[in-house]
Structures are given as structure tokens and as C-alpha cells.
Amino acid sequence: MVRTRNKKTPTKKRYKLRDRQETDGQYLLKLVLVILMGTAWLKFATPVMLGPVPVAGLPIGMLFAFLVIRRFEKRQADRKIWYAMLIVVTLICYFVPAGIMI
Questions:
Q1: Residues near 37 by Cβ (< 8 Å), separated by ≥ 6?
Q2: What are 54's strand-pairing partners?
Q3: What are residue 79's phi and psi, to 5 degrees?
Q4: What torsion do the CA atoms of 26, 31, 35, 36 make, to the nearest 10 degrees?
Q5: What digits encode the pLDDT tens for the residues 22-62?
Q6: Domain boundaries, given as residue ranges, for the chain
Q7: Are 66 and 84 in contact (CB under 8 A)?
Q8: Rounded-to-integer distance, Cα 6 and Cα 15, Å
Q9: CB contact at 8 A, 61 and 68
């Protein structure tokens, strides 16, 4: 039997995942977690000198939050919003006496 033209094999239909709207409770939980992680500083009793720059603490909560946000937030625009909020909270908490003191 001779084929005159190639028949296409049926392909699986690709279903696009609809962007699911997150509930207000989910958004509020994310907001509280980002604020809590932004306040987690490892502060030193006496500043450590790294060359000419004194370092009074390390933002361990911010570093961990960056990884968590990157892992769980799907849309890039949402990630940018969470990153900006995290940086603002972290900078504010640098000047406030919050964090773990060594």
C-alpha cells in the first residue's frame, strides 16, 4: 500500500493552567510571613569590621525569604512586589531594635 501523503498523528491537547486567583487569606498570610522574615536579623553586640566597613548585623531572614519567594511565587510581577516589600521591611528593621543579638 502506497501512502500519498503523511497523516498527522493526533497530538495531546495542551490545557493551559488558568491563573488561579489567590484568596485574601492567602495574600495576608504571605504578607505576614514576608514581614516576619524581613525582621529576622542576626545582630552583633559590637560591629564587625570588614575592611573599612562596620557590619552590625546580617539579614538572615531576608536571605531565606528571597529563596522562598523565588520558589513559591509563579508570576514574575508578583515576585517583584514581594521582593520590594521585603527589602523595605528589612531596611526599616535594621534601624529598629529587632532581631537576634549575639
A1: 61, 62, 64, 65, 68, 86
A2: 49
A3: -60, -40
A4: -10
A5: 889 999 999 999 999 999 988 888 989 999 999 988 899 99
A6: 33-47+54-101
A7: no
A8: 26
A9: no
